[in-house]
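Exercise 7 asks you to align residues with tokens for two separate proteins.
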Amino acid sequence: MWQSVINWYANWNDELLNVLREPESAETVTIPWRKKIAKQAANLSPIERDQLYQFCLEYQGAKLWWAIAKLTILFSALGLVLYSFKQKLHWLPAVLVMNLLGWMLVFALVGIWFNYRQISRRHFHFSVSAFLGVLFGFFGFTSLSAVIQGKDIWATIWKDGPIVLVVAGIAGALYVLMIGIVAGWRNQGYETKAAQLALDAEREKSARQESESQLRLLRAQIEPHFLFNTLGAVQQLAEQGAPKAAELTANLIVFLRASMSEMRAEQISLAEEFRLIQAYLEVMKARLGSRLNFELQLPPELASIPVPSMLLLTLAENAIKHGIEPSLRGGDIQIVAEKLGTDLLITVQDSGVGLSDKPNPGIGLRNVRDRLRLQYGTHATLSIAEAEQGGVIAEVTIPLA
């Protein structure tokens, strides 16, 4: 029998916890009285549901039954204390009345604590309910005491009634007063917390919109920056009468047609970014010839990872402009993507002139750093260092999750 009760309680507790997590699941409850409770829980505000969920999670199973046992012992002891002061009152009614009052207070506190918004709006309704509860509880427990003792019910009510009724009346008045005080205090705390959450949400929305605006501005800066540098290379070849000027122009047109959508997107896959880089390096190789060699390494399992568009392309262009072009012999560019723990690591390495001969890095690297900061906060980094064998290593770390 006890095992059945335990299983029944565990099933109901799991059901209630599920409703508090997912309010829409209240519609799946089939037992009528449990469905009513589930709907009441689902109608609570998100803040109230979360508070009740944490309470139910804390007090369940053996911990709940032990708490009930301790409170029952406490109320019974208070009943015996009442009996010691009022010998005219039998000890059993005293114990029963104190348990009645004690558990009324417990349920009142729990009800007020997790349903304070409803109570604050319907104070009169709950006050009347409290009075009727005290009245019916008085008659019920006095009658039960008389039956247990084998006495006449009406005679017992007439004899013990005045004392019990006074105690119950005082408790009822305190109960109603407690409803008003606790519900008002809790409701004020709720309103304060709700206002703070709304303010935080508004601030987060404003910050997100500001970040998105800054990201759009940074993309708008880098697109003409990239295009002007590339078109400048075409102009230089044309002025020199180089035979490859026409080929470079054709390659550039093909590249721009393929890459315009990627330039305008906020994020693209790593595979698309690598294709964009390869197309750009093919254009630059048509101009630099044997002075430029490049290698791209992208593992297939990393191809679908999203990255900010043109971020790595900016680093590749920076390596060409500040590393390969100033070098008489040219150099190599190697771009490698790899997984490093929970991060994505992309390395852009050139064998050009190195950092010592570089002027201020300019808009490119500043743009990359700003975009990483706005997109990922402190979770993404860009580091620039001198390579041991010459040239520069740029490493971008982006969180995968």
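Second protein for Exercise 7:
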Amino acid sequence: MELNVAKIITSSFELTNMADAAVTIRTRKFLTNRLLQRKQMVVDVIHPGLANVSKDELRSKIGKMYKADKEVVSVFGFKTHFGGGKTTGFALIYDTVEALKKFEPKHRLVRIGLAEAPKGGRKQRKEKKNREKKFFGVRKSKKPKKE
């Protein structure tokens, strides 16, 4: 019985050592999108022994790879392949923070901390939407004042 316990301990010890393994980041399908003032690419992350790599860490590493500030890098859409060890996603590197704020969706700006999440509940949003529906096609001057 004691031998089995010793085997379990050594195998878990080996796994914790594997967690320190290096992370490899490769990019492919690189495209410079001048209209949206950004570079866009597919990112392959190879992380043997790790469950995954944080998006914050990926943003800083991709920023270093392309000599850009971490603030102008946006990463999203990551899927871990079956069996683990490899994850694929998408990265955008904007030319400036202003371009990032202009073209990036609001929910991604909230995630990276450049915008604030809208306050208020679901019920309030629905009531506002229904109030605004009554004035479809009416000049803005005839709309009721904001409450």
